[in-house]
């Protein structure tokens, strides 16, 4: 754990090393992934059967056995605690409402020269959602990835989830049903991404792939990029908590640990204008680690990547946070809206003492798939925009062409593109 | 040149081979590019001096000599034909107006449970624009890349342009001035992308890099992706022209050749419901190739990648176009708006007989940087959205937390994330 104080010498050097801290220890698997993709392109379904047996340790009888049937989803739903199903539905309803509010409007511009110009939004036809299996099989991720696609108007949402040993998480299937997923496939790893991007006899190809995954999945997304669209490749998760002297140290500590419990490479940073609070939070973290179920992971993350920064003021704290451009930002301060107005770079912000970040992971409404590793400087969370694309259009009358065509001809000639110039000039009657 | 007719046997096979045609013959340069990026990261400015001498064949005296001074831009402007400067200004004004109309609104949602949710748009701080030098130094590309950034509110736009032999295109500098570029650097290739992404002593790093380039530039963008954002990596350009029997074959032919003259790997496809027009356009292409200044390139592109498809109806033509998902789509038909309503996938559309695609390359207003190679299925043209990012936010009162917190606790517990659950539960007073 790193302690820094902006009023001490050496702060800049310490903060710079925090900014440069490489937490992503992903192994290079590009060769192995290229082979898997080539095998799926070459052998299609039979490659999927073989790779599933090898990596997920169960042997599907046929390609049809890779598909999770509606009856299996019904059975899974019947297995789930009704209170959990209700909670999932509550979350889904709120996530849908927020993402509907994101839907953009078309642009139409009738301009003085007599042309009509526009920009039309449309949904992608088919999307693949990857859902990690095993320990990280999170129903909340199914909602967060599939709902924006459905709200955007995507008609086909194909989901792939590995089932190590053949075992499926019933709540993941319940989430898929609730989110409007069209097809569920028991396929994991790079072979799932390859099947979604290139298609097989059983699985028609999609146009875009989204969702988190391990190093193989991330590398496979990199390699199919261009053939299909991909979402961003997520690194380890992180939170910055800006807290003032009025906060309860135990709550601040638990918010830091909620981030830290994701995995050992997660990062939790407290920035406060109160040295007293800083010390109290450090002690509260150690107290909480005595009882937390995932204390081993959270403690390791906190020890390795955690930081406590004492700043001269909340304004200075906000400026430091912008340099970190965190995935998640909590503003545990008396006037969170005023402080939020100073923030330029963050994936998602949580304002005030009754808004722990975990609320946003599950139920608040905004997406929990967010830019990590300082990429909030230029990137954004998953949204309906990831599942929409734009077509711009121009409609020119003869008068409109006469008004703007001659200058286009000049520019085309200056660039040495004669056919460009002539295609306009011959319609000007010259 | 490929001829197809949807009513003939073998059409599907022929069309499938058109869809799979690999026009991108880019050489693999990943090793060389990785070395260049490593050198720039290691040696900064001095690497730029050495690489510029090696690749651009001129020796900058110092890092300061890499910067194009305002006085040099003034001198370049004085050199340009005033009519061209006026045309550039006309184009810039129209491009600005269209991109301003794209600017999205923030989202604010006060929800029934008593929470406030929102999504706030903000500009990226600093952006790098790459402009190819040599034969492809296009002032129009400067406008199309820099104006959306400035309209989005990006405060620093750094432009890199190679100057082979030390030579600069004055009109490119005039376009940079008009578009509001903040800095111009005489640096090209992978070293320019590396300098923009990682920074040197002279060039502060940017957050996002945009703009076209050769194989080295494209590969460098791939390699710095993650460190900074990048725009899409453009492949060879293409147009689909849907024309009905009422069109002038000479105009249709010139529109096809305007695309073909870009380079040998460009592709022009005519789809028509009239076999008579198809034949007449083929002859008109050959006629025009007798006199076009870039006939060698356009003729090679047409011979290698061109296609003429006769369809049974315009509706069938639209469906075929959607399978091609072209970068540019011209609708040279009597009722272009009705046909456009049937189109789902295209980067940009040009409606009616007085709207040749070249108008959009220069002056119409929408961007000319568009998704190529069937990626319009999921990707969009350059726009203000490429230079904006979103921060979502949640503001919960104690009552709001009480309304939605308990279900979030259930879901967190189901996912085995105890600190997530406790961070909410301890605020519920449980």
Defining traits:
homodimer; 430 residues; alpha/beta; Rossmann fold; 5-stranded parallel sheet; 16 helices; 14 strands
Provide the low-confidence segments of chain A as ranges.
none
Cα(first) to Cα(last) distance of chain A is 74 Å
Task: Describe the largest sheet of chain A.
Answer: 6 strands, parallel
Give the name of the CATH architecture of the largest domain in chain A: 3-Layer(aba) Sandwich
- Biggest chain pair interface: A-B, 118 and 118 residues
**Strand order, biggest sheet of chain A?**
1-11-10-9-12-13
Description:
2 copies of one chain form a homodimer. By secondary structure, chain A is α/β, with parallel strands linked by helices. Chain A folds into 3 domains: 30-230, Rossmann fold; 235-377, 3-Layer(aba) Sandwich (Rossmann fold), CATH 3.40.50.1980; 397-425, no CATH class. Chain A contains 16 helices and 14 strands. In chain A, strands 1-11-10-9-12-13 form a 6-stranded parallel β-sheet, with helices on both faces. At the A-B interface, helix 4, strand 3, helix 9, helix 13 and strand 13 of A face helix 4, strand 3, helix 9, helix 13 and strand 13 of B. Strand 13 of chain A pairs parallel with strand 14 of chain B, so a sheet runs across the interface. Chains A, B: NAD(+) binds at residues 130, 191, 214.
